[in-house]
Amino acid sequence: MGKEVCVHTHINNKQETSWITRLGTQRLYEEGVIVRNQSVLLNGVNNSFDQLIELVHTLSDMHVEPYYVYQGDIVRGAEDLRTPLSDSHKLEHQIRDQTAGFLIPRFVYDVPGPAGKRPTLSAQNYNRHLGVADFTAPRLQGHHVKYWDPLWSLSEDAQKEVQSHFADQSSDQASSQEAAAP
After folding, report:
1. How many other β-carbons are positioned within 10 Å of the β-carbon of residue 181?
2. CA distances from 31 to 5, 7, 17, 27, 144 (A)
3. For 103, phi and psi rounded to 5 degrees?
4. Helix, strand, coil content of the chain in percent (nearest 5)
5. Residue 166's pLDDT band (boundaries 50, 70, 90)?
6. pTM, whole model, 2 decimals?
7. Contacts by 45-53 with C-beta closer than 8 Å and gap 24+?
8. pLDDT tens profile 107-150
9. Are 115 and 124 in contact (CB under 8 A)?
10. CA dihedral of 81, 110, 14, 105, whole degrees rounded to 10
């Protein structure tokens, strides 16, 4: 009995595929290699139902399993590409309603630290107004990790509230560091 070999691709939109992609995945399929795709949900790239379902069907036609759709990480300089958690929730429901179960990717948020990938639908206390949700996992031992939606997706009032929250937090941390200094 041999080992199962899997290859993971990173295709976010149908436009990233070509005849070379199709030829390569066909060859892997013929050799018995399992190919899975991991996408990142990106604003303006694949965060509409039409874009995502087209990607799912394109992958399927190439014998590639649509495996993960990641919620974008909070990375400096990439705020405009991130999508709100509500997009992920909405798209997962729409995809579930329109395609076979084995073609439904797992919509996940890769929680920083030891928690690992968590289904985006497992977010707790999601406050759409402020764009914040809690994620937890057994490895976090009861602790929560917050996920913040991109500021552009919030109302002007909510943006001010979130910015104020982080400004207050920075001020509190600075005060604590000053008090601890010799």
Report:
1. 6
2. 10, 12, 20, 6, 43
3. -100, 0
4. 45, 20, 35
5. confident
6. 0.84
7. 45/12, 45/13, 45/81, 46/12, 46/13, 47/83, 47/87, 47/91, 49/91, 49/94, 49/95, 49/98, 51/13, 51/14, 52/91, 52/95, 53/94, 53/95, 53/98, 53/99
8. 999 887 777 888 899 888 899 999 999 888 777 777 788 889 99
9. no
10. -140
Tokens for 100, please give them: 């076979």
53-94 tens-digit pLDDT: 999 999 999 999 999 999 998 888 899 999 999 999 999 999
State the pLDDT at residue 83: 95
Which single residue is written with the structure tokens 């630290």? Answer: 113
Q: Map tokens 């149908």 to a residue.
A: 14
Amino acid at 19: W
Q: Which of 97, 104, 44 is nearest to 69 (CA)?
A: 104
Strand pairing partners for 146?
A: 134
Instruction: Give me the amino acid identity at 141.
Output: Q
Tokens in use for 77?
A: 């300089």
